[in-house]
C-alpha cells in the first residue's frame, strides 16, 4: 500500500501572523490541499499560539473532509481543547518554547505513566492517538506500552544529515524502528524535514502508512500555488513504491 500524504498548514498561519491579520488563511490552504489530493490536514496548536490559533482549529474541524490531525503537547490545556474539538487524530509532541520547530521526538520512556494517562483520556474521548518519537527501539517499545495505536517517526536527523553516510545511517534507523513498530502491532507514520529532494527513500519504507509534511510544501506553494505543490509531492510519494 502506498503511503498517504498529510499536509501540515502551520506555516500558512506563520505568514498570516507576521502581520497579525487574516491572510493567508490556513483554513483556505487546507481546503486547497484536500482538493489537490492530500489525505489529511495537520496543525500544531502551540502553547504560545505562534502560528495556528484556536479559531483555525475549530474551523478546520468543520471543513476538513479527510482527516484532521492535531499535534499537541500533553498538557491539561491541550487535552481539554482536543476533547472539545475532537480531531480525528491527536499526535502528542514535545514542546519547548524557545525551539523554532519540534526538534526531537517525545521521550516516551522518560514519562511513560503520564503519557499513558493522556493517551487513555484521548482514546476514551474518541480520538485516535499517535506519539511522535525518535527512531529508537526503546521509544517504540515504550510507545506500545502506553496504549497508543500509532507512532510517527521523527525523520529530522535523516533530513539534516550532512554526509551520505550519515543519511544512510539515519535512514536505516527509521527503517528498523518502523519494522519493530509494525511487529508490535503499531501503525506507522513518519515526518519532519521531508522535502521534494529527500522524501523518496522514506516513502519507500513498506511499513510507513502516512507521511506528514509541512514546511517544504508550504514553501513551494508560496511560489507555485498549493494545488501544484501538493500534487508534485503526492506524485513523488506514489512513485516511490
Ligand atoms: N510531524 C510532526 C509531529 C511535526 O511536529 C512536524 C512539524 O510541525 C511535521 C511532521 C512536519 O515537519 P515539516 O514542517 O518539517 O515538514
Features:
241 residues, alpha/beta, TIM Barrel, 8-stranded parallel β-barrel, 8 strands, binds pyridoxine-5'-phosphate
Mean pLDDT: 96
CATH fold naming: TIM Barrel
Main pleated-sheet profile: 8 strands, parallel, barrel
Report the portion of residues in β strands.
15-25%
Number of helices: 11
State the separation between the terminal residues, measured CA to CA: 8 Å
Q: Quickly count the domains.
A: 1
Low-confidence stretches: none
H-E order: EHHEHEHEHEHEHHEHEHH
Query: Shape from CA axes?
Result: globular
Helix content: 40-55%
Work out the number of β strands: 8
CATH class: Alpha Beta
Oligomer: single chain
- In the CATH hierarchy, the architecture is Alpha-Beta Barrel
Give the name of the CATH superfamily.
Aldolase class I
Q: What small-molecule ligands were found?
A: pyridoxine-5'-phosphate
The strand line-up of the biggest sheet is 1-2-3-4-5-6-7-8
Gyration radius from CA atoms, angstroms: 17 Å
Structural class: alpha/beta
How would you describe this protein?
The chain is of the alpha/beta class. It has one domain: Aldolase class I (TIM Barrel). 47% of the residues lie in helices and 17% in strands. The chain contains eleven helices and eight strands. Helix 9 links the parallel strand 7 and strand 8. It is globular and about 45 Å long. It starts with a strand and ends with a helix. It binds pyridoxine-5'-phosphate. The site of pyridoxine-5'-phosphate (PXP) has 19 residues, from strand 8 and helix 10.
